[in-house]
């Protein structure tokens, strides 16, 4: 058995990619199954219902098991026992992480907006048929991760893949994007702690740990009354996850404006860039390409070293 897993706190691209990768491996003649490292988001549940796909089961202990990784290659985003598994392959669109292997592996890491873009191309390259359901699943992963092809991570490959997959799924791409982003930006009934943590990525900076979360919104009015609860949730996250700083991106996906709020011991380094306790960043949708590089620069200028202490 080969287990295919995406990163912790999986988003839609991670889940869709795991399902698609398992299907690709099974078409090659392997015995593969998609698993997940966390709960499904409301958007992902919508996608799976729409495509009639079964949700991946929770990731089992991987010691001694064969594994493929999708949408990550950093140990920090994998299962605790990943070092005890045999990693056979990686399919990703993130920067290459710190996963190492003792044996040869198959790796396909492209500078595109979505892991599902890479997988859609692999299906074509290997002449494996993509039915309507799989086409819609792959399309959903791309649309979700590129915020409807508007994120700065979006490439021409993503656009071409979406157009082709929409044709194969026999759907209108613009309508599909509108409907999916409506679900993506719905936060009704979700508590503040869940919202802060459900899409948080943890980054290492020297001896410190930084969590960056993102809530994608249709309008900032959705969160205006619950910001105090976000600060309390970020404080709890600092304690629960041993973080020196939690930064929360509140992103209006229509205007591409992001408001940053934060909490933690390193918060003082952001405060003098703020107005009324927030930092407003225009034309900003991407954590990976925009907010994290900006934050690294802020910390460097503030004298926070990226070199871990040696004891």
Which helices and strands occur, and which strands form pairs?
Layout: E1 2-8, H1 12-27, E2 32-37, H2 42-51, E3 57-58, E4 66-70, E5 86-92, E6 106-109, H3 115-125, H4 132-145, H5 156-169, H6 173-184, H7 192-197, E7 201-205, E8 208-217, H8 227-240, E9 245-252, E10 257-263, H9 268-271, E11 279-281, H10 287-301
Parallel strand pairs: 1-2, 1-4, 2-3, 4-5, 5-6, 8-9
Antiparallel strand pairs: 7-8, 9-10, 10-11
Task: Jot down its keywords.
globular; alpha/beta; six-stranded parallel beta sheet; 2 domains; 311 residues; inorganic pyrophosphatase (n-terminal core); Diaminopimelate Epimerase, Chain A, domain 1; five-stranded mixed beta sheet
Your description of this structure?
It is a single chain. The protein has 311 residues and is an alpha/beta fold. The chain has 2 domains: 2-183, inorganic pyrophosphatase (n-terminal core); 192-301, DHHA2 domain (Diaminopimelate Epimerase, Chain A, domain 1, Roll). The chain has 10 helices and 11 strands. The strands form 2 sheets. A 6-stranded parallel sheet has the order 3-2-1-4-5-6. A 5-stranded mixed sheet has the order 7-8-9-10-11. The longest helix is centred in the first third of the chain and has 16 residues, at 12-27. The chain is globular, with a radius of gyration of 19 Å. The termini are far apart. The mean pLDDT is 95.
